[in-house]
Amino acid sequence: xxxxxxxxxxxxxxxxxxxxxxxxxxxxxxxxxxxxxxxxxxxxxxxxxxxxxxxxxxxxxxxxxxxxxxxxxxxxxxxxxxxxxxxxxxxxxxxxxxxxxxxxxxxxxxxxxxxxxxxxxxxxxxxxxxxxxxxxxxxxxxxxxxxx
Length: 148
Ligand code: RTP
Hints:
- There is one protein chain.
- This protein starts with a strand and ends with a helix.
- The chain is globular and about 45 Å long.
- Helix content is about 40%, strand content about 15%.
- The chain is α+β, with helices and mostly antiparallel strands.
- The structure holds ribavirin triphosphate.
- The site of ribavirin triphosphate has 10 residues, from β4.
């Protein structure tokens, strides 16, 4: 089953949106396989956003991510990477439809509340970076009511 890495960014934590965000993934039927709160340093944030290191907004992005604790999670389920991105909304909250997390709770790109892996490859890399000791192997008793 597919897994994705989801991170509630410092603004999402400070604004008390952790429960709201978890509820959206949980109610959809996805399975939480790993979760931790963490404060990361510049070097770790740089590793997470390595692919964006040449972008002009990279330093600002790293400063944002290290500005407070984040909540890192692994969610599992059918098409969870693409569906997770739909639940999150577009990178720029102004382009995000109401009903998405960014569409409901954010205004600016530099304070867009949440991160979600954008491909199988980046999910694999991000899960290995954030959860080097692995995740929790379990299955909800509701599995048969979510999948046919
Ligand atoms: P994320 O990785 O956080 O899920 O966001 P994303 O895929 O939707 O967007 P990406 O292009 O990977 O950018 C990562 C984060 O960098 C910030 N950003 N700022 N032009 C800008 O100022 C700019 N562009 C991107 C956003 O916080 C974005 O989520």
